[in-house]
Amino acid sequence: MGNAVNDTSTRADLIVIGLGAMGSATADAAARRGLRVIGLEAFEQGHRRGSSHGATRIIRRSIEEGPQYVPLVLDALARWRQLDEESDQPILHLGGAIRVAPAGSALHAAFLRSAVAHHLDFERLQPGDVHERFPALVVPDGFEALFEQDAGVVFADRAVRALQTRAVRHGASLQFDEPVSQWRADGDGVVVDTPQATYRGDRLVITAGAWTTQLLASLALPLVVQRVVNVTFQPTVPQRFDHEHLPAFLLSDGTSGVYGVPAIGGEGVKVGGSGSPTSPDETQPPASDDEVTALRSVVDRFLPGAASSDRSTLTCLYTTAPDGHFVIDHHPDHPQVVVASPCSGHGFKYTTAIGPVLVDLAVSGSASLPIDSFGISRFITSGAVK
Ligand SMILES: Cc1cc2nc3c(=O)[nH]c(=O)nc-3n(C[C@H](O)[C@H](O)[C@H](O)COP(=O)(O)OP(=O)(O)OC[C@H]3O[C@@H](n4cnc5c(N)ncnc54)[C@H](O)[C@@H]3O)c2cc1C
Q1: CA of 40 to the centre of ligand 1 (A)
Q2: How far does residue 348's CA lie from ligand 1's centre (Å)?
Q3: Counted domains in the chain
Q4: Which residue among 279, 300, 320 closes a domain?
Q5: Per-residue pLDDT, 6
Q6: Same structural domain for residues 235 and 314?
Q7: In this structure, are 291 and 337 located in the same domain?
Q8: CB under 6 Å to ligand 1: residues?
């Protein structure tokens, strides 16, 4: 691979660092707009060290994290549907999503804030209703369920691969096993170095997930990396817990909670919970028995019989901001650089909307979707960064 300045293989209108969900969607959106795109990924295609791997992710519409996310997810849903139609394997399964928590809980209040603000359809189900419709799901007395139909599951590994394939089909050059060692602004453009080559671009989008703070050390972003365990159980009676009998779920006992996906696409019942601090370069040990037991104890209460001994696990990383919200903004010193960590453990569902948003920001300086609350300056005003 040459690195002469006018070597077209190292020149681009837009360079993307990191090809997880967000970087792949950015390369896809940019290539489909006819831009020359180079995507650089540190690890092999489909690697399992970041935040976007695994069979499934939940997509909801009544977003508990805040009404400001609803326009993003509605845009993403339309674009997931399009990708699903174009793909030879299902990318999306909208079998509904249910929240079970004590009546009047914070989880339900947050759901209702978004649903009411955006006039989203949902049903309030009492324990008896749930038992009738989803017999495997137990709703304890004093608990309530909120159900929305137009929600469910995105097949994560397939989705990221489909975005990468479509990006390449539209001319993007995606380089795997090519870690970026450094980048710098160069006039109105950027220069990006890897062990293999030096790249020049007019615009740069940094979607490096858990490694964001490493590539943007000067910004001292207050992002914390967390290790998260997902367990997939093979229930002894699988059809009781499959996607025809159970929607995606968020289960909370008022203090702790789990999220999960029914058995679907040959996979068992997947559950996950909150994370624990780690560093992105640490080799993640497999899930411990304690980590599995912590999830099993919640599952046993709400989905008795789902958490059999037959199980598989994966570890994954969240990149979390102190306020639990995304980071999407221009670099404060370099307007040709866009910084994006749309994670905090809930970013995947927005992937197909965020890709075009990042290209808009990079190329025209602003985005059509509401992202103002995701700016870097909020950390300065909050004193999180000096
Ligand atoms: C277990 C788990 C369950 C989740 N469940 C849900 C869910 O149900 N619904 C939902 O909406 N969201 C969910 N999320 C969150 C969602 O998956 C993430 O927000 C999303 O995947 C973040 O994508 P990303 O592209 O920012 O990060 P990543 O996928 O980590 O991509 C960053 C990429 O940058 C690369 N990189 C880093 N440094 C460099 C460098 N120097 N040079 C080149 N490449 C580099 C990395 O190798 C990596 O591939 C979950 C996350 C986890 C971990």
Answers
A1: 15
A2: 8
A3: 2
A4: 320
A5: 44
A6: yes
A7: no
A8: 17-23, 40-43, 50-52, 57-58, 179-180, 207-211, 215, 228, 230, 259, 272, 316-318, 341, 343, 345-349
139 and 212 housed in the same domain: no
Range of the domain at 343: 11-51+157-219+323-381
Shared domain check, 233 and 347: no
| pLDDT computed for residue 177 by the predictor | 98
CA gap 307, 77 in Å, rounded: 30
- Residue 254 has a pLDDT of 86
CATH number at residue 272: 3.30.9.10
pLDDT value of position 5: 42
Rounded distance from Cα 143 to ligand 1 centre (Å): 33
Q: Which of 301, 289, 254, 250 is nearest to 273 (CA)?
A: 250
CATH number for the domain harbouring residue 202: 3.50.50.60
Q: What is the reported pTM?
A: 0.96
Distance of alpha carbon 191 from alpha carbon 282, whole angstroms:
28
Q: Are residues 236 and 140 in the same domain?
A: yes
Distance 317 CA to ligand 1 centre (A): 7
Are 213 and 261 in a shared domain? no
The segments of the chain whose pLDDT lies below 70 read: 1-8, 384-386
283 within some domain? yes
State the pLDDT at residue 3.
43
Q: Candidates 223, 343, 351, 374: which one to mutate for ligand 1, based on the most atoms within 8 Å of Cβ?
A: 343
Say whether both 228 and 377 belong to one domain.
Answer: no
